[in-house]
Structure prediction request, 353 residues.
Amino acid sequence: MYLKILPFNKTLFKKDFNQVKILIFIMTIILFFNVTLFVVSRYGSYIKVKNSFIEQNVKYDEKDLIKDCKEDIAWRLEDLGVQSALMIAVPIGLAAILFGEEKRKKTFEVLAVMPYTRYEIFFNKLIVALVSIALPFIINGIVMLLALGFISNLRMFYSMGQVIKWILHSIYCQLPILSFSILFGIITGNLISQLVLTGIFLIFPMGFSSLIAANLELWGIAQYLDLNTIYFTSFKFSPLGVFETIGQGVGYYFIYIAASIIMIIISKMLFDKSMWERNGELLQFENTEGFFKFGVTICTALLMVVVSTVFLQNYIYDFYITRFLVLILGYILGGILGYIGAHFSIKLNKSKA
Prediction:
């Protein structure tokens, strides 16, 4: 009974894990040099600065030195620089390897004739992906915790609670991005389209809302719109908005975790219905091609108008009729280019499949 609920398969898990282990290793090493080494070396830096002040006969407040070291560690653990880049790139890469690369190699077709159900295939890929986003942070967290145990003086700079919080926070931030990437790994039919469309739709809420606002402003319908406010408001509707939820309340955590679970459930349902004979095409499901063409047509039309007015702004604001014609021609030209581009990208990938 429990095997039916959780169809873990050692062979499938090992196969998928071997595909992504190099990515796990790279992420672990980057985190070690960017975070762990910085944290565990703070006591040495503290002693070095302290001795330097003593040798130069400079007055110092030891409490201030300790406070500075604690703040440096807290900043590094909470810094969204390199870590945020990893927490975006790695989940996308994992989904690309586990789904897009499998489609490129036609592995799904091979698995279809072997004694594995689709449930088993999807479940083990999901487990590997979850293990992969957690393992680098857990390994580095263990190193920091061991350093606390062996170097007691480090305890005045950071605590076990900070390290555990860092691990959980890092896993949480990756969940929506991983779920989103898996969803597009199933919707798309090949590796390139998966990477491109995942990247586009990650920023789609910000990009599309900004395009709409810019077009309304060009028509004079909504003057003096604050594009920055629109951008950051729409940012919350993207999986990337998870980075802005820290310290915003438990409610936000539940929203993004629930959204991640829902995307995984939808991914599982789509995976069960996916047509593996379409692997290699742009989109996995034929009935999404019309939506794709429509979306690309609309977005390209909106973008072409903005681009046109930027290049022709010195000529179109003197006469209302001139501006009107430029806007209309921009929509027509952008729509045609968008439709042609979407149509031929689908056709091209069909010929390669």
Observations:
- The radius of gyration is 25 Å.
- The first helix runs from residue 2 to 5.
- The chain is about 80% helix and 0% strand.
